[in-house]
Design goal:
Number of domains: 2
Distance between the termini: 60 Å
Largest sheet: 6 strands, mixed
Number of helices: 9
Order of helices and strands: EHEHEEEHEEHEHHHEHEEHEE
Radius of gyration: 26 Å
CATH class of the largest domain: Alpha Beta
CATH architecture of the largest domain: 2-Layer Sandwich
Strand content: 15-25%
Structural class: alpha/beta
Strand order of the largest sheet: 8-9-10-11-13-12
């Protein structure tokens, strides 16, 4: 295809005809000359290396869009800077130097991502401190106990169960992402782009209705992205304890955390493999003890010794409404949950559930293989 003088050329590779056509129209509205392909063979026949931008869907039926990007890279390492991978599934498996755009997206997001091709990319996702409060906030009282004492139970079998649960959650979310990509994500992408294009041509008196529909779509897109965002899924290995807890609990409404970790004399802190598992335990604790009325503040303290990890959660409650029996609403359920969770881990829970603040503590015996200094 011979483009207009000075116009940049873009190649769109997507196996869904409607999405392919709408992306092409959106790029054309931004001044690009566009060619399309629905398979990798069709894309290769168009000489993708000659385009200023190559947009390829991550999943093309049985084919992988990243294969086209890697083929371009092998011929010219600089070509990867002109590639943009589109996906409604998980994006964390892509090489870090490959630009990516999560479906569904709006026209301005699409054009912005294409215009940014070739520009320097940040080394990684910046931390998002909004969810985790500073550690120097006024501290809630936390249970105190000697951290060098070895507690009974919670031996290797409990750790094996926790690790197994993490693997199952990771696989479950990836399977869900693949399912959503083939259905709701593709539909939302098409509807979003089509509505924006229609918005430009409808009479002004109908603009309010279109704007309301766009806001609803934007809300749906935000929810779907939150579900698929790999940075808000199961906490990854190799990150800090505060970041792991933040990631694992971000979906809990109204929980504003501050996290503190201390090590007893002679202890070297948590092993990297222990951090995400401890984050999972915190998530499970909060899942069952946070009442219907979100707490004002939540403080998590992790005390580490040579033989055990003690996790303490303190909640400052927003309300102290009492039930007919004189008990704070949800207090009995919170105590029962803490006891059941501790029993499943082979240990015990200590709870202090007062009117205005709740304290829950669970201790985990460390695995010998993961103790500081172990191979």
């Amino acid at each position: 295809m011979i483009g207009r003088a000075g116009a940049q050329r873009a190649l769109v590779v997507d196996d869904i005809a409607d999405v392919r056509a709408l992306i092409s129209r959106a790029l054309a509205s931004g001044g690009y000359e566009v060619d399309v392909a629905c398979t990798l063979d069709e894309a290769r026949a168009l000489d993708p290396a000659s385009y200023d931008a190559v947009l390829v869907d991550a999943n093309l039926g049985t084919e992988r869009g990243i294969d086209l990007v890697e083929a371009l890279r092998s011929a010219d390492p600089g070509a990867v800077g002109r590639c943009l991978v589109l996906s409604g599934g998980m994006l964390d498996t892509l090489p870090p130097d490959v630009a990516r755009l999560a479906k569904p997206f709006r026209i301005d997001e699409l054009l912005g991502a294409v215009q940014a091709l070739g520009a320097p990319q940040p080394a990684g996702r910046p931390p998002t401190p909004a969810h985790t409060a500073p550690d120097n906030d006024p501290q809630l009282p936390l249970p105190r106990a000697p951290v060098n004492q070895r507690p009974p139970g919670c031996g290797p079998s409990a750790w094996q169960l926790l690790h197994l649960a993490r693997r199952l959650r990771e696989q479950e979310r990836r399977d869900l992402a693949d399912y959503l990509h083939e259905g709701p994500v593709q539909e939302l992408t098409a509807v979003t782009l089509e509505l924006e294009m229609m918005r430009r041509s409808i009479p002004p008196e109908l603009g309010g209705m279109a704007d309301a529909a766009q806001r609803r779509l934007t809300a749906a897109i935000g929810s779907l992205r939150g579900l698929l965002d790999p940075h808000r899924q199961v906490p990854a290995y190799g990150i800090s304890l505060a970041a792991a807890i933040e990631q694992g609990t971000a979906w809990l409404p109204g929980v504003a955390l501050s996290v503190a970790a201390t090590a007893a004399t002679g202890a070297t802190g948590l092993d990297p493999q222990e951090i995400p598992v401890v984050a999972d335990v915190v998530e499970l604790m909060l899942l069952g003890i946070v009442p219907a009325d979100p707490p004002l503040r939540t403080r998590v303290a992790v005390q580490v010794s040579e033989h055990r990890i003690e996790v303490s959660v303190a909640l400052e409650l927003a309300q102290d409404a009492e039930s007919e029996g004189g008990d704070v609403v949800g207090r009995s359920a919170a105590r029962e949950w803490a006891d059941r969770l501790a029993a499943a881990l082979g240990t015990s829970a200590q709870t202090e559930l007062r009117d205005k603040d709740w304290l829950v503590r669970i201790a985990l015996e460390r695995q010998p293989a993961l103790a500081p200094g172990a191979a």
